[in-house]
């Protein structure tokens, strides 16, 4: 066998050295012997692949690092909103959007508008003293000297105004200094001004940053429904109230007229759906503009308790309401089988109980029927009925009407308002409560109780939210009892103390109450009364309850000052019914000619 020539080791090493330049691209591949070329190509591909892999890894690391730096920068932008950092709400997402509030017909009661806040970065001011002077000219409550000293104090950031009018913003722009900056805002706006002010309450800014501010409720439904109004899941759907804007505006207008006519220091009114408890109007005077609640709050601090513009009389005012309570004692007497509408009640007076004496305004003779006890408003007759009923049964009956506990209406102002009850519900307490003294409730409590009589005996819970349907409440009295009391209350208007409340075409039923105002230290004020009318309409098919109260009204008639509800609250209620009945879609019945006024 023949063998090829043997290549010495030295010659192999020499060959490898000779082929290395070709492998790394520095020589001629043709110099490589043909039988080694395949191995050299494979080795070169392997080296190039390793080099490409290294470059790709470096590029990936570079891109990841770059994207990470961008992400960190974007995340820290909210923390660097101008050098003041706007410490309020820094780094947090501030939800400024808030649902609109509308009345039952979709008319806007509260909405949002775009505005700007104004802040100053003193270190960027070119002419601090000039800027201070011109800002003081735009905002008269600012002092130019004090503002200049603040600019020079070394502070880096000053909030100057939480919101600006368009005219104020333009005036600030005209100053033309880079140290004056604007912060975009959504603010709450009430297009109807003071209408329904106590219901809406008002809103302001919560947490604030340079680029946004939270809107939070301060009072009224804005506060009570704050979570609902600021819930992003609602997707901007409005919150619909039970109020009717047209009815609300007319009630407020006529209350203001009554205050002027009778010289009253305050007034309140409630209009309620007798079946559902939906409140169509809730008015309190004096009132305020919720667009400027801060000014109203300052005025309230200077007023006597219970008399300031932010005080909601129908909701917060606990009053002895007088004879408007008498229908309740009549209803219970009927319910317990103690009397019928024609039962004769002892009205001889004065009625003595220990050292206390109960009198009637007029001498009504020795006896009146139960119906006439209500029509002629006999304190003695009501007290006699309460004696037969007894304090425990009376208390239980008033509890069924909802008169002894706070109301759950959607207003924060109502939550802590619990009726004032006697410390010990004695026989004497029962007698005075029968004609509306010795117990203090709100107008809204009274309206809900009268709704029970109007709707056939079912208890209602007042609400400010529009409800398409609502199940009937628990029965507080029989339908027969409610019907009999409604008949009595219609007679109060046709031939009793409330004749001035009647309206031809829209018959009204109800009761007057004139209560002496208690002194803070005990006893009652001389010549100062609270006049109330409570009732419902139309009397033959009750749909709506109305309660009207005037604080210290008086009018000269027949040569003397008249302060009773028959002369003040009753005609005011009649005027309101006449105006709002058509707005509520009630067609007039055959006109009834009311008897001459008392």
Q: For this structure, what is the CATH homologous superfamily of the largest domain?
A: DD-peptidase/beta-lactamase superfamily
Report the count of strand segments.
18
Structural class: alpha+beta
CATH structural architecture of the largest domain? 3-Layer(aba) Sandwich
Instruction: Give the assembly state of these chains.
Output: single chain
Q: Give average pLDDT, whole number.
A: 86
Main sheet makeup? 5 strands, mixed
Beta-strand content bin: 15-25%
Task: Explain what you see.
The strands form six sheets. Strands 1, 2, 3, 4 and 7 form a five-stranded mixed beta sheet that branches. A five-stranded antiparallel beta sheet has the order 9-8-16-15-14, sandwiched between helices. It has 598 residues and is an alpha+beta fold. It has two domains: 101-124 and 131-140 and 154-240, Penicillin-binding protein 2a (Domain 2) (Alpha-Beta Complex); 247-583, Beta-lactamase, CATH 3.40.710.10. The chain contains 19 helices and 18 strands. Helix content is 37%, strand content 18%.
Can you summarize this structure?
The protein has 598 residues and is α+β, with helices and mostly antiparallel strands. It has helices at residues 9-23, 34-76, 128-138, 144-151, 166-175, 197-200, 220-224, 226-229, 245-262, 293-302, 313-316, 326-335, 370-375, 379-389, 391-400, 427-433, 443-454, 479-495, 569-583; strands at 101-102, 108-120, 158-161, 180-189, 202-208, 213-219, 239-240, 266-273, 279-285, 344-346, 351-353, 356-358, 367-369, 509-518, 524-537, 544-551, 555-557, 560-562.
């Amino acid at each position: 066998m023949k063998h090829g020539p043997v290549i010495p080791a030295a010659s192999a090493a020499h060959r490898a050295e000779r082929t290395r330049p070709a492998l790394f691209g520095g020589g001629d591949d043709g110099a490589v012997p043909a039988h080694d070329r395949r191995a050299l190509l494979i080795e070169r591909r392997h080296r190039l692949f390793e080099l490409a892999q290294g470059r790709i890894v470096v590029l990936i690391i570079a891109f990841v690092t770059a994207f990470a730096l961008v992400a960190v920068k974007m995340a820290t932008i909210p923390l660097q909103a101008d050098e003041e950092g706007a410490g309020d709400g820094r780094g947090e997402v501030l939800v400024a959007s808030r649902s609109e509030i509308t009345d039952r017909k979709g008319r806007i009661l509260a909405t949002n508008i775009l505005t700007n806040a104004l802040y100053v970065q003193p270190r960027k001011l070119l002419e601090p003293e000039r800027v201070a002077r011109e800002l003081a000219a735009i905002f008269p409550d600012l002092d130019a000297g004090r503002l200049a000293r603040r600019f020079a104090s070394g502070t880096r950031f000053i909030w100057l105004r939480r919101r600006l009018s368009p005219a104020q913003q333009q005036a600030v722009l005209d100053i033309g200094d880079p140290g004056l900056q604007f912060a975009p805002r959504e603010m709450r706006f009430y297009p109807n001004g003071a209408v329904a002010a106590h219901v809406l309450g008002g809103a302001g800014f919560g947490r604030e940053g340079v680029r946004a501010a939270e809107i939070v409720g301060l009072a009224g439904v804005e506060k009570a429904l704050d979570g609902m109004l600021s819930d992003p899941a609602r997707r901007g759907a409005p919150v619909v109230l039970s109020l009717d804007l047209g009815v609300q505006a007319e009630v407020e207008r006529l209350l203001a007229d009554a205050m002027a006519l009778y010289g009253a220091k305050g007034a309140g009114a409630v209009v309620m759906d007798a079946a559902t408890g939906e409140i169509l109007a809730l008015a309190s005077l004096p009132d305020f503009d919720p667009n400027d609640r801060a000014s109203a709050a300052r005025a309230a601090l200077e007023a006597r308790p219970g008399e300031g513009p932010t005080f909601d009389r129908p909701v917060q005012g606990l009053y002895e309401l007088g004879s408007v309570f008498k229908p309740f004692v009549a209803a219970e007497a009927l319910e317990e089988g103690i009397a019928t509408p024609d039962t004769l009640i002892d009205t001889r007076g004065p009625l003595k109980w220990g050292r206390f004496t109960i009198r009637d305004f007029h001498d009504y003779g020795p006896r009146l029927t139960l119906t006439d006890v209500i029509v002629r408003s006999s304190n003695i007759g009501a007290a006699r009925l309460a004696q037969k009923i007894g304090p425990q049964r009376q208390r239980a009956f008033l509890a069924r009407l909802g008169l002894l506990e706070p109301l759950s209406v959607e207003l924060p102002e109502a939550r802590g308002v619990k009726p004032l009850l006697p410390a010990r519900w004695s026989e004497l307490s029962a007698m005075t409560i029968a004609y509306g003294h010795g117990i203090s409730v709100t107008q809204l409590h009274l309206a809900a109780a009268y709704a029970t009589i109007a709707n056939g005996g079912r208890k209602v819970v007042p609400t400010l939210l529009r409800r398409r349907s609502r199940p009937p409440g628990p029965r507080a009295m029989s339908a027969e009892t409610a019907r009999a009391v409604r008949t009595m209350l219609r007679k109060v208007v046709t031939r009793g103390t409330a004749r001035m409340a009647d309206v031809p075409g829209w018959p009204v039923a109800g009761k007057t109450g004139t209560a002496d105002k208690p002194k803070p230290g005990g006893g009652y004020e001389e010549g100062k009364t609270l006049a109330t009318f409570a009732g419902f309409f139309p009397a033959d098919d009750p749909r709506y309850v109305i309660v009207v109260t005037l604080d210290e009204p008086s009018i000269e008639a027949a040569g003397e000052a008249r302060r009773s509800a028959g002369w003040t609250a009753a005609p005011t209620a009649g005027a309101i019914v006449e105006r709002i009945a058509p707005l509520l879609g009630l067609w007039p019945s055959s006109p009834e000619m009311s008897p001459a006024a008392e």
